[in-house]
Specification:
mainly alpha, flat, 117 residues
Length: 117
């Protein structure tokens, strides 16, 4: 079985959307108060849940026509996006250890893709 480019694209888009969902969830969580209405009327939390749901739908659609061993490792690319979003939106520090971790993730993806050739 070969993995179509459309499946790869769907999983990559799902990964990016999922990492954006994490941004909305964190942003919404930062504005919570100890009452129920702060959760119910929190549009950031709602948008985070919606983006995660959309990400899941795209992920399942992408997985339906491709090889799991090719597609699933690409989900880890969301970690790279999340690192960028966390710096951009929350001014989190990008440390040497985080950069090394991202490098290891990328190296792992390359190794897995080479193993499937």
């Amino acid at each position: 079985m070969t993995t179509p480019v459309s499946s790869i694209a769907l999983v990559l888009v799902a990964s990016i959307i999922g990492s954006a969902g994490a941004v909305f969830l964190k942003s919404g969580a930062m504005s919570l108060h100890p009452n129920l209405s702060s959760i119910i009327f929190n549009w950031r939390l709602a948008l985070g849940i919606i983006t995660y749901l959309l990400s899941s739908v795209l992920f399942v659609k992408g997985m339906s026509n491709g090889e799991l061993s090719v597609l699933f490792p690409m989900v880890s690319l969301g970690y790279i996006c999340t690192l960028a979003w966390s710096r951009l939106f929350f001014q989190e520090v990008i440390t040497r250890a985080k950069v090394i971790g991202i490098g290891l993730i990328l190296a792992g993806i390359v190794c897995l893709s080479l193993a499937n050739k």
